[in-house]
Here is the input.
Amino acid sequence: MVPTIIIASTVTALYWGIFSTLLIKPTAVITGGANLTVAHQQMFMDFVASKVAPKIGNPEKDDIEKKKMPESLNFLQDSVLATLLCMIIAVAVIMLVLGGDGIAYLRDDLFGQSTYKNPVIFLLYVSITLTADLWVLLAGVRMFVGELMMSFKGISEKLLPGAVAGVDCAAIYGFAPKSVVLGFLCGAVGQIVGVIILIVSGSPIVLIPSFIPLFFDGATVGIFANKFGGWKALVIICFCTGLIQIFGSALAVSMLELTWWQGVSDYATIWVVITAIFKGIGSLLGIPVVG
Here is the structure.
């Protein structure tokens, strides 16, 4: 196992080091020059979004953060309510895909809430719970990043001049709250369409999107897409990201004969390629790839 550990750790370190570094300048534009960069599992897709977005839209004219919403939609200015609405829509679609037996499994075995026999009440319970969990997580991340940046300041000034802290993607959500909601929604729509395509095409693999790729990828990619190309770029790129997450994950599951996959966008793109390369090398050398 020693060669496996050495190779895996080296490739992983290169991934985190290279792609978090590529995001230093784009993240500085988003945060107004903050000494940090995004270090999360959609770094590659964030970088792609920052480069592709200017070719789709105009960030000066179409920046969603500068747009005023109609009075009838003013409640969406509250990011918690907007997130809850998105959660209700996404969870409802997932429940429709799962069907009665799948909903019963979620209710009784995963959530342990067998008393919620009414599917609408259970839908509201799941959506509210996920929204609350998310905002507790975001509050914790902001607290952690705030402390981290204070302690990192000495390192960047004395030990490693010019060093930048790589932080969780949620640290930049406060700079673009509208992009977070719209990016999540468009990414969720892309994933749902991807799942429907798998079902309609008779694919032996059908993926149910999990919470992390459903929210964090769409929100984060959406921030980069909007900042460099406006809301039109956000809608297109986040929708495509959702499709990529589903099809890339399905390819990885098929290739490795697994029953699950970490469906964030980098794992559905660059890590699928890396996995295929290693599997090819393993086949040439007679080394089995264990899923």
Observations:
- The first strand starts at residue 36 and ends at 38.
- The radius of gyration is 20 Å.
- The chain has nine helices and two strands.
